[in-house]
Amino acid sequence: MSTEMARQGRNLILGLVVLILIAGCAPSPGAAQDTALPVTPTPDPLYTLHCIRQSGYNDLCYAGELLTGDTALLEKVSRDFCLNKLQMMCSIHIWKDEQSVAQTLPLTQAELSSRIARYSKNPNTGSDCLQTYSNGEVVYSSSGCK
Questions:
Q1: How far apart are the first and last CA of the chain?
Q2: What value does the CA radius of gyration of the chain take, rounded to a whole number of Å?
Q3: pTM, two decimal places
Q4: Least buried of 38, 72, 128, 136, by fewest C-beta within 10 Å?
């Protein structure tokens, strides 16, 4: 009986908290409805990393057209992507176009062959590594690869 009362009391408190949160989000009646927001630039899709799927801690992405030919820029964009995620571990698998992006991990041989890059950051080991690939073979490894 006391367990049931405790559960009902907890549900009542949770309901009140939700009500207060919802009320706090509603605009006040006298508030201006046309508040100007700061203009944020739209990223150029040619220089953008398009991450469309996740598999565990791994982001499955394709690179904008101009990133695929610029290893230094690809590394910078990948590093920035990981910094913006605010996660300790970060791993990005990158393909040339959206149709090639894997559905999930582990990767098939065809997905490995069509992947153009992989970036990983692990602060526990100090690893900050970009590798680029051609037909599944490593053609470039940044200095942070171990």
A1: 61
A2: 23
A3: 0.69
A4: 38
